[in-house]
Design goal:
There is one protein chain. The strands form three sheets. The protein has a three-stranded mixed β-sheet, sandwiched between helices. A two-stranded antiparallel sheet has the order 2-5. It is mainly alpha-helical. A hairpin with a 2-residue loop joins strand 3 and strand 4. It is globular. Helix content is about 60%, strand content about 5%.
Length: about 350
């Protein structure tokens, strides 16, 4: 496993950083908060840069990238608070569709996945997912395909309407109404498909969280350099420096855990699930600490709508429960450890 990103991976991350900053500045995020239509312009720009097809196999028009590349891109997406569903489409949806396509010969109707992979790579389709009993599906208002888990089976649904969220009950009703890609497209009883998908979702979310925490830290460090109190910048006070250093340490640890988990996913290693749990728990802790310190050191201005800080504070809070909370993942880690001891 590579300990550090390669030169090519560094270049991919820098390209993504520049693209996200230009395509989705805080001004756009505020407009979306006010109800402006998200549209597909930014998604097409991501496709032109090869990001929507990052994990799509090359034979379907994609880049054939691994999960290490995914977490680098998602980290920059978090830094920009990018609202486009890269996590759901690139990190979770595409690998699921790729596995369905691979199993097409033994799964009746599975060949439909080929067309969706090509559409995603071209920027003509967006996928969202609902796994592990999640009560809601975000980005249902812009997605073309929903991959949903119902009683341990995976189903592909379309025509689910332009609503902001899809509940689990509504997904069941859609399935009962046969609003699916193909009546034979269910991939039933496939823990080998669903369990890795949940791990990819957890690690992808962790990467987003580290990006958000990094943005909060950078914003707060800059504020501490300029905010004057008692005749000097607040960053000159040791108590402030210690809080910022604590965030940096937590963020560095979380970043290492995310990178290790991405490698375990790429290599399909035996510690994949354990590494994913460690990464999500560590990222939750780092993001929560960055959130708290940023809000405290900004003082009253951090609560205001006029300051951009809240765009990252709220996004970070929303992601803490996605694909498992820190407590849930620590339970997984403890169960693994106690199970090993019993053997």
């Amino acid at each position: 496993m590579s300990v550090f990103p390669t030169e090519e991976q560094h270049a991919l991350r820098e390209m993504a950083r520049d693209l996200f900053a230009a395509a989705s500045p805080p001004k756009r995020l505020r407009a979306l908060w006010d109800g402006e239509d998200r549209g597909r312009d930014v998604w097409k720009r991501l496709a032109d840069a090869g990001l929507t097809g990052l994990t799509v196999p090359q034979e379907h028009g994609g880049g054939g990238g691994g999960f290490r590349e995914v977490v680098l891109v998602l980290g920059e997406a978090g830094y920009a608070a990018l609202p486009e569903p890269l996590l759901e489409t690139v990190a979770v949806g595409v690998p699921l569709l790729t596995e369905i396509a691979r199993l097409a010969e033994e799964t009746p109707g599975g060949a439909w996945a080929h067309g969706w992979l090509e559409r995603i790579a071209a920027g003509d389709a967006i996928v969202t997912v609902q796994l592990g009993g999640a009560p809601y599906v975000v980005d249902a208002d812009v997605a073309d395909l929903l991959l949903t888990e119902i009683e341990g089976s995976l189903f592909a649904l379309t025509d689910f309407g332009a609503e902001p969220v899809v509940t689990e009950d509504r997904a069941r009703r859609l399935f009962d109404a046969h609003a699916i890609v193909d009546s034979r497209s269910a991939v039933t009883h496939r823990p080998a498909i669903l369990e890795p998908a949940r791990d990819r979702g957890a690690v992808g979310t962790a990467a987003l969280q580290t990006g958000i925490a990094r943005r909060l830290l950078d914003t707060t460090v800059e504020y501490a350099r300029t905010r004057q109190q008692f005749g000097q910048p607040i960053g000159a006070f040791q108590a402030v420096q210690h809080q910022l250093a604590d965030v940096h340490v937590a963020l560095t640890a979380a970043g290492g855990a995310v990178w290790h988990a991405a490698g375990a996913i790429d290599d399909d290693g035996p510690d994949r699930a354990h590494a994913a749990a460690v990464a999500k728990a560590a990222a939750n802790d780092a993001a929560s600490l960055a959130n708290r310190v940023a809000l405290q050191l900004h003082g009253g201005i951090g609560f205001t709508w006029e300051h951009d800080l809240h765009l990252w504070l709220k996004r970070g809070l929303a992601l803490q429960q996605a694909y498992g909370s820190a407590r849930e993942h620590r339970r997984r880690i403890a169960a693994d450890l106690f199970d090993e001891e019993s053997r």
